[in-house]
Write a structure and sequence with these properties.
Distance between the termini: 53 Å
Number of helices: 9
Helix content: 25-40%
Mean pLDDT: 80
Radius of gyration: 21 Å
Number of strands: 12
Strand order of the largest sheet: 1-2-3-6-5-4-9-8-7
Length: about 300
């Protein structure tokens, strides 16, 4: 039976409290066997959960007043302005302008299908991947704490929400005939690749969201976060400058694209090109990136 987990997480001591876009907090706790990550929205931080819930419902009921044809960015922007007006009336003088901005942002996000996962996708979250199976706790790969259990269960509501995002394209389907869907979604706040598998590929529905950076990391960044050693970075540049062909392989999230892009960005000679074979074919969970150091 598809029954979500009922037991609570045993959180240990607080390891880090990270504020991200919109005033959300990511709290990391010690845990066994892996750390635990909890998302804390602004309404909980400021003790006005009921107000935000009421305003979110108002925004959702006012959908007919939304612009008819609009991007996600413009829709959220429109709803932020609407929420700010309402919040200014209800909470006038009680909270600072910055806090009202955070609450308006939360209202706007909560009125979309990105609620519950948005803070994990934004550029400054530090989260690299979000994944899980139906009825189980979800996990993230964090740039600082590594693999962490997320205080969020992939339940029926969340799974349906994620499916609706992935299937926004009318030409994409997800069923026993087409049991896998992969789609890239982006806004001014994030860029992410959604992958959902259903039966018969898997027994339980699985979701894998790869958070794609919009800001380029430098070679010193890769060395600092232990993606590359200084020796390997120098060797990679040496091979590149001598016209060698370099093949980089590895699992999802291992740093293939980041490692391969750096020589191209550093040298900028205009003669070499990075080719991602994943764009040409995909076989199961395998990922391959080909870096060609010759003339392409």
């Amino acid at each position: 039976a598809k029954t979500p987990l009922l037991h609570s997480l045993a959180k240990g001591s607080l390891l880090e409290e990270r504020e991200v876009t919109g005033g959300y907090l990511l709290r990391f706790y010690s845990g066994s066997p892996e750390p635990i990550c909890e998302v804390v929205p602004p309404s909980v931080r400021y003790g006005v959960e009921d107000v935000v819930k009421r305003l979110t419902l108002i925004l959702m009921k006012r959908r007919e007043s939304d612009p008819l044809t609009v991007t996600l960015d413009r829709l959220i922007g429109y709803r932020i302005e609407t929420a700010k007006e309402l919040l200014g009336t209800i909470l006038k003088g009680r909270l600072s302008e910055d806090k009202l901005e955070h609450l308006a942002f939360e209202c706007a996000i909560e009125s979309t299908r990105y609620r519950r996962i948005f803070p994990l996708l934004v550029e400054d979250s530090g989260v690299e991947e979000v994944y899980g199976s139906y009825g189980e706790w979800m996990y993230i790969d964090d740039s600082v704490h590594g693999r962490c259990k997320l205080a969020l269960v992939l339940d029926e509501e969340l799974l349906s929400q994620l499916k609706s995002l992935a299937l926004a394209n009318p030409y994409v389907s997800l069923d026993e005939v087409n049991p896998t869907v992969k789609v890239e979604l982006k806004s001014k706040w994030f860029r992410a690749r959604f992958n959902i598998d259903v039966y018969p590929v898997v027994e339980r529905e699985t979701v894998d969201i790869r958070v794609l950076r919009t800001k380029q990391l430098s070679l010193p960044d890769l060395i600092k976060n232990n993606t590359l050693s200084s020796e390997l970075a120098a060797y990679l540049l040496l091979l590149y400058l001598n016209g060698a062909n370099i093949l980089i392989t590895g699992g999802t999230g291992s740093g293939k694209s980041l490692s391969g892009e750096q020589p191209v960005l550093v040298v900028k000679d205009g003669f070499r090109q990075l080719v991602e074979v994943e764009k040409l074919f995909s076989e199961g969970k395998k990922r391959l990136l080909l870096f060609n150091g010759g003339f392409v």
